[in-house]
Amino acid sequence: MTILKSTYKKILVALVAISWVSCSSPWDDREGSNDPNLNENLNEAIAATPETTTFSQLLIQSGYDKILEASKSYTVFAPTNEAMQLVDAAIINNPETLKQFVANHITLSAYPSVRKNEIDRLQMLSEKYLNFTGTNTIGDAQIVSSDHYAANGIFHVVNKALGPKLNIWEFINSKKETSAMSAFLVSLNDFSIYPEDAEAKETAEAGMYADSLSNSYLKNVYNLNNEKNEYTFFMMEDEGYNAEVDVMKKYLTKTTADSTATYASYFTLRDMALPKAYTKEQLPEEIVSRFGVTYKIDKTQIVGEPVLMSNGVLYIMKKVEVALDKRLVPTIIEGESTKRSSNYPDFNYKILYRDKKDPTLGAPNNGFFKDVSVRSLTVAKFTLGYSAKDFYSTTYKVYWRAINDFDSTVFQQQLQIGRVTSVVDNTNYVSIIKTFDYVPVERNNFKEVYIGEFTLTEARDLQRILLIGNNSTGAGTNSLTLDYLKFEPVIK
User: Where are the domains of the chain?
Assistant: First the structure.
């Protein structure tokens, strides 16, 4: 047995060694290769390669030859002479666009064809990003000859010029004169969906996050101007876009028709961006937006081919239909998200935040949940406060899940819905929309309980949602408990 174990270990070590050698990086193996290019810098090596002489001339013309003669390590993706013949002469003849064009073929550090990652997202000297996929794909070009070493890096010969592409937000801006959807998105540079958006725009300072604060869509959905990450975006043609917005108007009623149209547009479009780049073949069967809205993409509505951007993929769509029962998702408020009680601040220490297990549930979370409870009170109508954004102009059915597993008696609690109408000298003036009747909280009931309904004639935030204890001072009769509140919008 000992001999067998020893033999097995030797075989395993040998296999690991073979695997390590076979997967080693050509860049790491350059030493001792006697490659004469190791005595030249990248600029010299590219100039000496017959297939890349045209690109070599552009290195000189743009000044990047000097950069590639420096001691830092670079990777260059050099197009073939044939590929360079297809480049627009206007790009080459303009010093600024030429410099950006050349820079988009160069990245800092050495990236050989054999690497640890299947996909490396490379920041080019143009500040754009390209995906280096597998051993032979960079962006939308193929490597035809790889791993040419020089003293200060590597260059790969590619079959296509890698001119810098627009990112998704740049593309949207370029279409604002001809696309209603683009025009609306760009208008959010000036119009703020939320008050905090306006504050962010006023206080934003130059820096890496400044662009995400300059527009309500970039701030609240995804920063489509961010080059580092990748996204998918669905841009609808005018007819399809206007039809979807019209459907949403009755649920986003505001004080003026213009405001209604603005908010209907925003709540239509906030679901059109995804935080990952999907090719047509990779598009999921069901899309789930950042806001929990689910819908399907009808591929027959895609116009032409997907547009490859520097930070993802953009689809021109005839329309993207989202069913109302999927668009109008319920609003969930977690009990443990409560604000401290304002009516009895001296009793805030009575508020307990609990980690519990629901014995009626199993996978996926095995019944674990968080909630809040207040007990052993000697004051009446102790109150927990909540708030939530983005309620639609429709009727809401209200439910709660409230777990009474600590009191031997059944206690009662009630819900009140209100909004802040104005703030004067740090005092909130409130309009009460609905006060529900007291509802008994039965022992060990882990099911949702229907509380009632209320109607909003105007889409708004609700800044004053109160859970109120019983009007009693007797311990055990005025407790509070809440796992969550659920506000379910009714389709008109």
Answer: 22-158, 168-323, 331-489
